[in-house]
Amino acid sequence: MKELLKRDAASHAVSLRAGEYSSEELTRAYLERIEESDGEIGAFITVTADKAIASAKASDMRRLEGKALGIFDGVPIAVKDNICTRGTLTTCASKMLADYIPPYSATAVERLERAGILVLGKLNMDEFGMGASTENSAFKITRNPYDTSRVAGGSSGGCAAAVAAFEAPWSLGSDTGGSVRQPASFCGAVGMKSTYGRVSRSGLVAFAPSLEQIGPITKNVRDNANLLSIIAGADVKDATSLNVGDEDFSRDIGRDVRGLRVGMPRELFTENISDGVGRAVMRAAKILEDAGAEVTECSLPSAEYALAAYYVISSAEASSNLARFDGVRYGHGSNNFDGIDEFYKSSRAEGFGTEVKRRIMLGTFALSSGYYDEYYKKALGVRSLVKRDFEKLFEKYDILLSPVSPSVAYRIGEKTKNPTDMYTGDLFCVPANIAGIPALSLPCGTGEYGMPAGVQLMGKRLSESLLYRVGAVIEDAEGGGV
Amino acid sequence: MIRNNDKYSLSGAELDRLAELAKLSFSDEEKEALGRDMSEIVAFASKLSEADISEDDCRFDAAGTPNTLRDDTVREGIDREALLASSKNASDGYIRVPKVIEEQN
Amino acid sequence: MSGREYEMTVGIEVHVELDTKTKIFCSCSSSFGGEPNTRCCPVCMGLPGSLPALNAQAVEYAVMAGLATGCKISRRSAFDRKNYFYPDLPKAYQITQYNTPICKDGSVDIETEQGRKSIGITRIHIEEDAGKLIHGGDGMTLIDFNRCGVPLIEIVSAPDMSSSEEAKAYLKKLRALMLYIGISDCKMNEGSFRCDVNISVRRAGDSALGVKTELKNLNSFTFAKKAIDYEFERQTAIIEAGGRIEAQTRRFEESDGKTYLMRSKESENDYRYFPEPDLLPIELSENMIKRISENMPRLPDERKAEYISSYGISTYDAELLVSDKSVSDYFEACAALTPYRKTLANLILSELMRFVEGDGFASHISPSNLAELATLAGEEAINASVAKKLLRRLWESDESPLAIVERENLRQINDVVWLTNLTLKAIAENPKALSDYKAGKTVAAKSIIGKVMSKTGGLANPSLLSDIVLAELDK
Question: In chain B, which residue's Cα lies nearest the Cα of C44?
Answer without folding.
Answer: B77
